[in-house]
Design a protein that fits this description.
Helix content: 40-55%
Radius of gyration: 19 Å
CATH topology of the largest domain: Rossmann fold
Largest sheet: 5 strands, parallel
Number of domains: 2
Strand order of the largest sheet: 5-4-1-6-7
Length: 239
């Protein structure tokens, strides 16, 4: 075993993409049909089911390459477009451009308190690992956003074949973190991040989920980790 590790969610915890997935679809459609009139709310209903993380109980090792992962999502994007009234042939053309739009680092923003939180915990001896339900290009995004140097490992659902809250992705994270003596999970999703981690014995902290939609930031999580130090009993036998 080794040291103390914080497992971090990425999207919605450390950074966010303007417009999220629906924004990416609208932007991709604009590339092939300028002035189309479709807005994010139009495609949103078609995106509510169909991503791998909507079926976390099932692994998807067959999608373990970037091209395979994105190819599997093309029908979902086409369905969302068609549901918004876009012609099927035009929808297919636009769907092929979603990948480039979503992974454009210029559309991503690091939350103002993310770097400070990572640095404060690192100074106190904590290592950082990303555990995220995300696209295959996550490593590139972390690099382009200037965050990659803070993490000793990145556990990405699209590449390991399991989605949070499935226990397997957390087991992989612990393996890659070197079976730490102390570990916390920090994320913005009460099910995928907090409940999923707790199911395998990892204490979880919910962030950016304040009342009335207010962002409560990462400061409370940092203070709790520094105060409580995490749990010292994470081991292969406990999983």
């Amino acid at each position: 075993m080794t040291g103390s590790v914080v497992l971090w969610d990425f999207d919605g915890t450390l950074a966010f993409r303007a417009g999220r997935w629906r924004g990416s679809l609208v932007e991709a459609l604009e590339e092939v049909a300028p002035g189309h009139g479709v807005v994010g709310a139009d495609v949103r209903p078609g995106l509510r089911d169909g991503f791998p993380w909507h079926r976390p109980e099932s692994g998807h090792p067959e999608l373990g390459t970037p091209d395979a992962w994105w190819d599997a999502l093309q029908p979902l994007f086409v369905k969302a477009y068609v549901g918004a009234g876009v012609d099927a042939r035009l929808a297919a053309r636009a769907a092929r451009g979603v990948r480039a739009r979503y992974t454009d680092a210029r559309r991503w923003t690091v939350f103002p308190d993310s770097v400070a939180a990572l640095e404060e915990l690192a100074a106190a001896g904590w290592l950082h690992v990303v555990v995220s339900n995300h696209v295959p290009e996550l490593d590139g995004l972390l690099h382009d956003l200037g965050l990659d140097g803070y993490f000793t490992a990145v556990v990405n659902s699209s590449l390991v074949g399991w989605e949070k809250p499935h226990r397997r992705i957390f087991e992989i994270a612990l393996e890659r973190a070197g079976r730490p003596e102390r570990v916390w999970m920090v994320g913005d999703n009460p099910v995928a991040d907090v409940a999923g981690a707790r199911a395998v014995g990892i204490p979880g902290i919910l962030v950016r989920a304040g009342q009335d939609g207010q962002d409560d930031g990462l400061r409370p999580a940092v203070q709790r980790i520094l105060k409580e130090r995490g749990l010292p009993d994470i081991s292969p036998e406990g999983l």
